[in-house]
Amino acid sequence: MWLEIAVICVLILLYFFSRDIKPRHFPPGPKWFPFVGNLFEFLQLHKKLTYVHLVWQYWSDIYGPILGVKLGLDRIVIISDYKRAIEVMALNEYEGRPDGFIFRLRALGKRLGVVFTDGPFGLEQRKFCLKQLKLNGFGKSSMEDRISQEVSEFTSYITSKCGKGPQDIYHTINVHVMNVLWSMISGKRFSHTDEKMAMLLQQIHKSFCLQDMTGGILNQVPIYRFFGEGKQIFNKHKHVVSLLNSFLKETIDEHKTKLDPQSINDVIDAYLLEIQRRNSENDFSFTEEQLIVTLVDLFMAGSDTTTNTISFLVQMLIQHPEVQERAQTEIDSICKGREVCLADRKQLNYVEAVIMEVQRFCNVAPLTIPHRTKKQVNLEEFIIPQDTTVLVNLYSIHMDKKFWKDPENFRPERFLDSEGRVKFIDRLIPFGTGRRRCLGETLGRASVFKFVTTILKNFNVTASDENAKRFRPIDGAILFPSPFTVEITPRTPLF
């Protein structure tokens, strides 16, 4: 018995030791240390630079646009160059998703959902999910109807607050943005005063802020969850996961009691019916657990990224009043006496340029969702081993001085040609690119356009605190605007 234990211990040590040796022709990066790799240096730099993407930028400036590091258990390659990023995101070899403690913690201890799954199972789940979303209006004219309903509710609420002092519009926007997707998923919508939805969105916010796109320290050193601050972070993660799962389980149970195969009204209904069909054929790839985690993925993907983009855009309008005025003038001239619709995007060139510049300048998602190499791959002169996590630093691409010339300046005109028409620049990739491009891009773009144009058409926004006047986002898996308040006044269109 003791011999067996000794052999197991030796094998475990050999496994970890083998991962401590930098593979031959691995991309350059800082020196690795036993077991922890570059983790301590990473944490020190993060404390100094505030943002994870700036740590990658700092190292990439030293070692090159293809950077190789090791954080705890994880080998990670960061791509900070547009040409190489496009190549990586287009290839099947990089299509995998990483496995790890945190990724499983949010998925009931398994590999479930549509974001952090891959292979035939992940592909089938994504296809089914996207098909059902489309059947419930995703990408169709009825999607604009849903967005318009939420925009109308939002406008009525903001109008009622005009002249009543500083307003924090972030949480109001968040509920209405979430409602568009949630109505397709569950057939329900929430009021902006609904305490349950407010609590859930707050928990999603916390979840994003607890980690970065690598999974964070608990993913890299899982044993840290038993000690000090690591235990606190772990308990916060568990609390968020528990609340979300409880809410979603309750929602699914409500649908089960009313499920009618002849009347499928939303994505949850369709998935429950698919579970029944598959089970009757002894196929158990569709389960309630998979449904819960899929809903977590959609819930998280459908709220904060879009809300943060809109909020950052409001901040930019406040900090650049000449941009706000020019965008309002364009809307007034094109949309005389009526509300703005999605079809107007083709004519509202300056508004589109403003949105693009916000996506470039503010970088809500400065890093892509992590990829995983499904087998050993060659990238130029480097060899990237199987099961290496690969990230693209979108921030580096969007702030590349060689291409953008003055990336630190907020200048929407860079997206207009000499005749004032929108100039689409392929280096702007806020939703990623390639085979695992963001599923919610269509909805995200439409929601941002509708909410922003409605704000511009109906209101003037000015700062009511210092946070509104400065761009200092909060770090996390995505970037959040620091809480700020605005003064909102109704406006009379020029035409």
Automatic annotation (TrEMBL):
Keywords for this protein: Heme, Iron, Metal-binding, Monooxygenase, Oxidoreductase
Molecular functions per Gene Ontology: heme binding; iron ion binding; oxidoreductase activity, acting on paired donors, with incorporation or reduction of molecular oxygen, reduced flavin or flavoprotein as one donor, and incorporation of one atom of oxygen; steroid hydroxylase activity
Source species, domain of life: Eukaryota
Keyword Magnesium tagged: no
One GO process term, biological-process aspect: xenobiotic metabolic process
InterPro entries given in the database record: Cyt_P450, Cyt_P450_CS, Cyt_P450_E_grp-I, Cyt_P450_sf, Cytochrome_P450_fam2
Any one of the GO CC terms: cytoplasm
PROSITE patterns for this protein: CYTOCHROME_P450 (PS00086)
Residues holding heme: C438
TM helices/strands, residue ranges: none
Keyword Heme: yes
Pfam families: p450
Cofactor: heme
SUPFAM superfamilies noted in UniProt: Cytochrome P450
Family: Belongs to the cytochrome P450 family.
Protein name per the record: Cytochrome P450
